Amino acid sequence: MKKVEAVIRPFQLDVVKEALLEIGIKGMSVSEVKGYGRQKGHTEIYRGAEYVVDFLPKIKVEVVIKDEDLDNVLDVIIDSAKTGKIGDGKIFVSNIEKAVRIRTGEVDNEAL
Amino acid sequence: MKLYRKSCLIASLLIFAPSMSFAGTKFNSGDTAWLLTATALVMLMTPAGLALFYGGMSRGKNILNTIGLSFAAYATVSIMWVIWGFSLSFGKDINGIIGSMQYLFMSGIGVKTLVGSIPTFVFASFQMTFAAITVGLISGSVVERLKFSSWIVFTVLWVTFVYAPIAHWVWGGGWLSNLGALDFAGGTVVHINAGVAGLVFALMLGKRRGFRKIAMPPSSIVLTVLGAALLWFGWFGFNAGSALSANGLSGAAFLSTNTAAAIGAASWMFVDWLTHKHPTMLGGASGAVAGLVAVTPAAGYVNIIGALVIGAVSGVLGWFGASYLKYKFDYDDSLDAFGVHGLNGIWGALATGIFADPAIGSAKGLLYGNPHQLFVQLIAVLATITYSALGTFILVKITSAVTNGLRVSDEEELKGLDISIHTEKGFEI
Question: Domains in chain B, please, with CATH?
């Protein structure tokens, strides 16, 4: 199993969710995060006092999937989250050792 | 107030108040209806207009406390005004310095007692709202670090020993009105007074932790703009009401007020645009208030060209005070009570001596061949600055002794005053 963490633009969330649903990914966790990468923050000015805001709001999508779905999922996320401008986000993939569905006790691929 | 023509009248009426019911003046229901309305308009300025204007500029953890300072000022002054404040300001003149205590608890005033053509009860209510907003304005200099107890004690002391005497000098038949100083609605009494007091208080209180080192973004520019709009609305009562009558003069004051506010908003925003490359809404809201402040002493004296010039300069001056002067001299006048109200109060008072048009308010300024008026205005400005600064200095010392210091602890300041003082949050987000 793999965990795919995608940090994306908040506005792209619905597009990404729909695209993943279409290829059969039926669950995800979403959190609001702040951060920065190559996209720099912005400046705010209040009565002449300038504040540089470094951290920008992003959405982090987490899905745990079967190994064989990985390439497909990555393609779909890249496709749906991309605008081509700096700040589209990043995707991180890691291995998952175990998964359990609490209600039934099913494990691993059956639990996804 | 329209003191150039009316001060002597008001003073003499007040001296003979118990028996003055029909002493040469007639009750006028139109004037009275307008002044009742104007009083309610000015009332709105403190617990709503100023509270939101300041509250939106403070950080999210201090918004409720900031609003609370204005709210508490209004309630506190309302109580003390009917007990001794009105009497000290408008009681029988004692040597041009202060009013007598003849109206303690409003005694000796009946429903038929008049000031000019309006009941004294209405006049006293109208004046009460002025006293309340003046001390409320000071809070802008000291927010986000002041103890609530210190604020209440300071409010009572300051209105008694600084506001009441100056109101008496200018409007209550005191020495400045006898000198012929023009202050239609409170450039000296309200704005210079509050701005200077705020600066002195801020210097004595010290800076907020992290001033100029950490970001202190406003909690909500939306609330600040709404507050500014409410102030603008209430200011029609403040300035047009200060004619103490419903007639052409109050109409002239009304239009001058709106004009100066509008061009003040435009000019501050425009300076922002030139210097920071962006027109800011905080600048627009601040500029409207700057224009309102500057036109306050002038509203019933100047013509529309005068109002345009006064307002245009006010936006630049307010910007200079809030965005340059404060940082140049490194003092934490947090929400710029001095930068906006102090500087523009001074400008407005002097501008009245320049632009006063006899076709509007029967007084002549420099442009109409009366340079002496500007000189008198300068005396009024200097007297107000001096007395306000000295009085505030002493009263802050006393407040500090009474409330065992002025500042909240560092931990409380860090946590925010809403939680640490009030155990409440402004918002649940």
Answer: 24-422 (1.10.3430.10)
ipTM confidence score: 0.79
What is the per-residue DSSP string for B26-62?
A: ---HHHHHHHHHHHHHHHHIIIIIIHHHHHHHS-TTT
- pLDDT of amino acid B25: 75
CA B100/CA B90 separation, integer angstroms: 8
CB atoms within 10 A of CB A18: 11
pLDDT digits (tens, 9 = 90+) for A11-70: 999 999 999 999 998 889 999 999 988 877 888 899 988 888 888 899 999 999 999 999
Q: Which portions of chain B are predicted below pLDDT 70? A: 1-24, 429
Average pLDDT on A82-91 reads 92
Q: How far is A40 from chain B (nearest CA, A)?
A: 17
Amino acid B6: pLDDT: 45
Give which of B276, B328, B429 to mutate to test A binding, by max A Cβ within 10 Å: B276
Q: Does B277 touch chain A (CB under 8 A)?
A: no
Taken in order of first residue, the domains within chain A and their CATH numbers are 2-111 (3.30.70.120)
Predicted TM-score (pTM) of the model is 0.86
Provide the residue count of chain A: 112
Q: Is B12 exposed, middle or buried (0-12, 13-18, 19+ CB in 10 A)?
A: middle
Q: By the CB < 8 Å criterion, does A51 face chain B?
A: yes
- Of B298, B240, B226, B184, residue with least CA distance to B39: B240
Chains A & B: contacts with CB separation below 8 Å: 31
The whole-number pLDDT of residue A48 equals 87
Mean pLDDT of A69-94: 94
Give me the residue from B218, B275, B319 closest to A46, CB to CB.
B218
Nearest CA in chain A to B318: A47
pLDDT at A37: 85
Chain A contact for B15 (CB, 8 A cutoff): no
B273 touching A (Cβ < 8 Å): no
Residues of A in contact with B217 (CB under 8 A): 44, 46, 51
- CB contact (8 A) between residue B280 and residue A51: no
In the predicted model, is pLDDT for residue A82 greater than 80?
yes
CB A62 within 8 Å of CB A5: yes
Alpha-carbon distance of B354 to B364, in angstroms, equals 8
